[in-house]
Amino acid sequence: MASSAAKVAIPSRCERPAPAPAPLWTRNFIAGTFLNFFIAGNYFMLMVVMTAYALTVYQAPAAVAAFCASAFIVGTLFSRFAAAPMMERFGRLPLLIVGCIAEVALSALYLLNEPVGALIGVRLAHGFSYGVCSTTIATVITSVVPPERKGEGIGYFMLSITLGSAIGPFAGIFLANNFGYPVVFVVASVLVALSIPAALLLRPASSTKVKGSEAAAEAEVEAAADAVAGAVAEAPDEEAREDAAANRDEALAASTRVPSTHLEEKVAAKVEHSPLARFVEAGVLPISVVCGLLFFGYSSLLTFLTPYATEIGLARAASVFFVVYALAMFVTRPFTGRAFDRVGPHPVMVPAFVSFALGMVVLAFAANDWMILGAAALLGFGVGTVQSCGLAMAVRVTSDARLSVANATFYMLLDVGVGVGPILLGIVAPLIGYANLYLCMAVVGALALALFLVVAKTEKGAR
After folding, report:
1. What is the CATH topology of the domain spanning 23-209?
2. Is 235 helix (H, G, I), strand (E, B) or coil?
3. Which of 69, 77, 104, 146 is the most exposed place for a label (fewest CB within 10 A)?
4. In angstroms, rounded to a whole number, what is the distance separating the alpha carbons of residues 69 and 202?
């Protein structure tokens, strides 16, 4: 007879060997990374010329010309709220293909020389389509990167933005100065058109909808539950019944094969009671706020670096600032990503926050070209590491069913930081001067570090 320590055998089909770790450089990962480069290159190429385009071609007032550029960010911010519900409704792959087609069409509309009001409308729509595409492809990539390689995989993926932020502005300014704005718009349209074949190469699980999958999945869950319930009922004693009940979730997970992430997203949406949960993933808000705060400081580089460098007579170094900045990201991200996977966030992100703050201090006291370029390297390492590892922290605590909302939440907070920064800092800069402003941004970096330590400690304690 079985002793009181007897164990209940779970049905044999539940006992499957653990799958081997999935490779990182899959077709999905490579195609998605290239797609992200194409849309990011288009974004940065047009962003750097749009204010000057509105000033020279439309003779628009400075404030209106600036909004012609920043309207893109406004559209992107709105898209972060809509992207997750749209993925849930239409599926990731169909939404991504339509978004890439919209990117091409909207880029081509700049050639029409429409009135300035229409130009702003195009910028808003273009920002919305970019936000949808960037959120969707980030969701696809974070869902296919193996869990044990999240930091490394996201680090490599983020290099697509790094390259876009380096090549796009350089190409935009070069083409505008030598060939005129129409050539910029044609090249930007051709570049983003390459995202369409890249999207067609993707095969995310969310795009695979099998007829009757919901009913089949539900039936399989019921069958697994019945098997476990039967094992519990046949257990010879209380201890054996407890063992069988404890294995219930594992048995269900091993027995059930849901054929579509789309189904998981629908189920997750049904069980969430808060309407806000459709747009915001509460679990990733803390690290998203930390990264958004750092990007608030980063916005000062986008807005005031050129006038500051001109004021101190270092405009030549400033012209290659973002090339060095992007190069620092490109060189360090693969190493920081692998380190994140091996040792966790603290040893990687703490030096990144320190590097950001130190870079702002060096920039504030810059007296020669080398100090400008040194600040660029420090800031590139700091911002690049915090962005990629911050996203890795966010998605590693998120279920596949909520990845779309988690990515949208993370990028939304980055957009808020970059969007609000120029407005608030534009008020402060004339009062305290650019050098003191960058010293203040060093303090912002220190505050972001302090907040990160609180968030990381809380997350560690919750595990």
Report:
1. Growth Hormone; Chain: A; (1.20.1250)
2. coil
3. 146
4. 31
